[in-house]
Design a protein that fits this description.
Number of helices: 3
Helix content: 40-55%
Radius of gyration: 11 Å
Largest sheet: 3 strands, antiparallel
Distance between the termini: 14 Å
Strand content: 15-25%
Number of strands: 3
């Protein structure tokens, strides 16, 4: 299901996968529910971290 995703996603790409808005995504990053790195001036999320967040979600 997630094979086509790159190993490192931008914030916007992760938002698209989760079907959420920018403020919700930033809230998840700032509360460390989704680990993210800052590269340059942008957030990057590892695909494995995003998948782990999805599979451990109470809605999964």
């Amino acid at each position: 299901m997630y094979e086509s995703l790159p190993d490192l996603l931008t914030r916007a790409e992760a938002q698209e996968v989760l079907k959420i808005g920018k403020s919700t995504m930033l809230n998840l990053i700032h509360t460390r529910q989704i680990p993210a790195r800052v590269i340059g001036r942008s957030y990057r999320i590892e695909k494995n971290d995003l998948i782990e967040f999805i599979t451990h979600s109470k809605y999964y």
